[in-house]
Design goal:
Oligomer: heterotrimer
CATH class of chain B: Alpha Beta
Chains: A alpha/beta, B alpha+beta, C alpha/beta
CATH topology of chain B: Alpha-Beta Plaits
Number of strands of chain C: 8
Distance between the termini of chain B: 6 Å
Number of strands of chain B: 4
Shape of chain B: globular
Radius of gyration of chain B: 11 Å
Largest sheet of chain C: 7 strands, mixed
Largest sheet of chain B: 2 strands, antiparallel
Strand content of chain B: 15-25%
Structural class of chain C: alpha/beta
Radius of gyration of chain C: 17 Å
Largest interface: A-C, 39 and 37 residues
Chain lengths: ~350, ~70, ~250
Amino acid sequence: MKREIWKGSEAIAEAAIRAGCRCFFGYPITPQNEIPEYMSLHMPQSGGVFVQAESELAAVNMVYGAAASGVRAMTSSSSPGVSLKQEGISYMAACQLPAVVVNVMRGGPGLGSIQPAQGDYYQATRGGGNGDYRTVVLAPANIQEAVDLTQEAFDIADQYRNPVVLLADGLIGQMMEPIVWKERTPRPLPEKTWAACGRGDRDHSNFITSLLIDAPSCEAHNLELAEKTAEMEKNECRWEEILLEDAEVVFVAYGTPSRVAQTAAENLRRQGVKAGVFRPVTLWPFPYARLREIASLETTKVFLDVEMSLGQMLDDVNLAVAERKPVRFHGRCGGAIPGVSEVEKAALEAWKEVK
Amino acid sequence: MAIHLTFRQDRCKGCGLCVAVCPKHILTLESGTNVKGYHPASCTEEAACIGCASCAKMCPDSIITIQKD
Amino acid sequence: MTAIYQKTKGLQDTELHYCPGCAHGIVHKLIGEVLEEMDALGTAIGVCPVGCAVFAGNYFSFDTIEAAHGRAPAVATAVKRTHPDQPVFTYQGDGDLASIGAAEIVHAAMRGEKFTTIFINNAIYGMTGGQMAPTTLIGQKATTAPLGRTKEQAGMPIRVAEMLSTLDGCVYAERVCVTDIPHLNKTKKALRKAFQRQMAGDGFTFVEILAACPTNWGMEIEEANQWLMENMAAYYPLGVIKDTEAM
């Protein structure tokens, strides 16, 4: 397999096309403009549909339409634009429609900054739209992973009939790294007999709707969705453990900060401090069980959660660790990226507290 | 040739639009009520019907069927 | 026995929830008839609004998709572009299309999207109980304009057919109503023409149907239709607004 150098955003776009995405709808916003730009040329060239929509809101509703009529579709945006998409994501979850939504995160809140951040964790993992629903949230830490997860995302979406969020920070979107396009085996997936694609010979018409105006029906539907949520929790959780076997200081980080933490851990080990990294790859379902196991180990002394936010994944880390060991936090936000030395310093401070 | 009008009276909402558009003025809303509490439409003089189907076309609930033999 | 008139196969056997005298039932029927006559019941895909017609998917016998409020043109854009040989339409009320959905309808028309929009303009918000719409007339009362709409507070109502006609992508726009049989016949012809031009690939087609809402206007049905002809048709002229070549 040939190694190629790709920019994150463009790689995500190409990965989607290779995964059979047939349409892309998006709107310009920094730092992910390369995605609609790449798609504007390559999607039609591959026989698909590209529309630069009038807004992020319109774009996600175009995805909704494509998905409702049985077609693989994707949209992308960055933080403020993804806020606009929450309506569409809620509707797609409600109607059980598969789709991929890419968020290349930037500083917030509001218009914020254009530099990398991780301030949309709550929005992505708690379901930023109205109602009870969850979406699988995939968090790549490098371009290879971004490419692999993007392709997997479409299968996950189709398998569970649910939107999937790919949550990348701005640095992942903008950096360039060598990757290989792997041969992959798609998951076995059912036919979309539910799609509103033209009745044909079917003995009934399909009506894609999320309005269930009487409470018992709406509740029953919610319980159905909850069963599906439980399946996703059971099957789709992913994480990576780096230098964790005997670690006393455990970094918990995802995306770009996980790489900073990895370098910090390597440096700490050279100084005689046993550090390692627990890296969630799915932010939802969050790997609570494994993290709790690690918290229960004698060797584990302290956790340091590193994020480009004021601490959103921190809630999940605390839930997992459940006070078995101390949890400390180091965060930068507004587009600031934590550097290796500040993360090392924070880890050393945390470790000294518990030594 | 005789024309027969059928009204699904249980679905009639007594809106009176059929009565208003009938060019022969042979439709009426009955004094009794249907299961919904509306005064359903019916034809007072089927023999005078010219089969224009204005009533059936206008009915918002599509309750009128017109046949001829 | 031969049938002179029977209910179109374009409608299921479900009972309609609409108020007595509401135009929705009439227009649903005409759409069903046109698509049946085009032999398109197996291929058509309708996009329903939020509004009284949110339940339209329970009535039409072809595939339908419920859109979020105002988003039907975006939804239909994707549906038609991925199913270009199938008839696609949006069915929207005045809140859905002219208020929350104003951007989506303008851009669909701008792009010349090859679907048909059927716009039911009854100058009020029906489903939510009678609030003011962008198309509510000056002096007309609504629950959020209890003393009547004024130009100073709410501006002048939007003439959507004319507004969309300024866009090259909109190739056909006609305003009609169903208050009597001659007007109903014109409505059916306009719907048929809109779908035919859509299938010919000409561009965006638009049929605005002035409709009575007796319940929220607080009028008897006949009175409502008269009010419509005297007042709505005076501000929103009936007829062909635009009929040009393909974009």
